[in-house]
Design goal:
Distance between the termini: 34 Å
Strand order of the largest sheet: 1-2-3-4
Strand content: 35-45%
Number of helices: 1
Largest sheet: 4 strands, antiparallel
Shape: elongated
Mean pLDDT: 91
Helix content: 25-40%
Structural class: alpha+beta
Low-confidence stretches: none
Number of domains: 1
């Protein structure tokens, strides 16, 4: 079986290192999105890492990323429906 090419996720940057990543998936039952929200940071050696832990000051950026992810999914779903008509 041929290897499937990995698709890169759609990224939403929300500030303070908060990033939402959206993956579109499909199977015989239909299509859906999976979303992760992480905070990107660098360690003392300058290496980048993702964390799923947020401080109080990150929460508005997390909410913004979630809202933008929702908006993107709704817009994509609407576009897909328009293409089918």
């Amino acid at each position: 079986m041929a290897k499937q090419k990995k698709k890169k996720p759609f990224r939403i940057k929300a500030g303070r290192g908060v990033v939402a990543k959206l993956w579109k998936n499909s199977n015989k039952n239909g299509e859906w999105y999976n979303i992760t929200i992480t905070r990107v940071y660098t360690d003392d050696e300058g290496e980048f890492h993702d964390s799923d832990s947020f401080s109080r000051d990150d929460l508005l950026q997390v909410a913004y990323a979630a809202q933008k992810a929702f908006d993107h999914i709704i817009n994509q779903t609407d576009e897909d429906a328009d293409e089918e008509e």
